[in-house]
Amino acid sequence: MPVRYPRPLRPGDRVGITSPSSGVNEKLRERLHVAIRDVEARGFEVVLGKCMDGSGHVSAPAAARADELTSLLTDPEISAVVPPWGGELAIDLLPLLDWDQLRVAEPTWLVGFSDLSTIITPLTLLTGTATIHGNNLMDTPYRTPDGLVSWLDIVSAPRGHQFTQIPPGHHRSTGWDDYAAQPEVREYTLDAPGTWTRLDGSGDLEVEGRLIGGCIETLCNLTGTAFLNVSDFARTEAADGLLVYVEAAGDDAFTICRNLHGMRLAGFFDAANAVLVGRTSAPGAPSLSQHQAVLDALGPLNVPIIADVECGHVPPYMPIVNGAHGRLVHTSTRSELTQTLV
């Protein structure tokens, strides 16, 4: 099936908010309200779901979370669905979602990253619907750094739209903002310089392919299942190959190395023309850094590997559209990812 792009959002459209994984506890509710007001300031109406409880590790029982997410994604009155953030156990929704209904419903934007990779990547692979990796709802109030775009800009763009993002040149080195103490914080603390790094060698690079990927720690658990059949997607949607992106949330270098080996052996990277790797603050080991872990596992692919891309858990965030056509450029003077919604 061709990649399906939801229609662009216009003022008055509805944005659904639900927590397919972790909810929002009471002391962080004011940040949630700040983020909701920012979405409303763009002219959208917010529909807040029932699965939002943050007192435990999930917002509601799996069946309730699956029903609410399916309902929002198939409701013709809802144009986008944006969870507050990820969590730990979104995997329990996969067998409970109504995939047949999701395939035939008009496509709706689903936005998120981290544990939401567990859902957005299979949604693109199984239904052909484009999804957005990046900018959870709680991140939305931050000012978008120069060179990047917000999920709000992407969901408002028409099919065929093309946009280019470049590394801002700075990122956050440690820690997170305290939303309980500063619920209205809008400026990222970007205190460390850095740009993209080529791991496999040197030389100028320009490569294209259809984009797919997500969080290593969550996607590795789906390899070998029907929910992560990248090979079929590549055959039907990417005859010219893929640009695959991955990112480590927090696991140590040995764990990431094992997980990437397993994903490679399962065929996740078989159609990759290049691999983008998100910047990470996850720990290395005395004998194996995070960069070395990636090379150890993915070096046998013999494709370009570009690391320290802003598509991971280190702010700021570069949204990537699963299913979009991508063009990656990396030279000594220029780094950019262009995405086209075709």
Notable characteristics:
9 helices; 24% helix; 6-stranded mixed sheet; single chain; alpha/beta; 342 residues; globular; 8-stranded mixed sheet
Account of the 3D structure:
The structure is a single chain. With 342 residues, the protein is of the alpha/beta class. It contains 9 helices and 16 strands. An 8-stranded mixed beta sheet has the order 6-16-15-10-11-12-13-9. A 6-stranded mixed beta sheet has the order 2-1-3-4-5-14, sandwiched between helices. The chain has a two-stranded antiparallel sheet with strand order 7-8. The mean pLDDT is 97.
- Structural class assignment: alpha/beta
Helix fraction? 10-25%
Binned strand content: 15-25%
Can you write the helix and strand succession as a string? EHEHEHEHEHEEEEEHHEHEHEEEE
Whole-number mean pLDDT: 97
Strand segment tally: 16
Uncertain residue segments? none
**In which order are the strands of the major sheet placed?**
6-16-15-10-11-12-13-9
Question: Could you describe the largest sheet, including whether it forms a barrel?
Answer: 8 strands, mixed
Number of helices: 9
Distance between termini? 13 Å
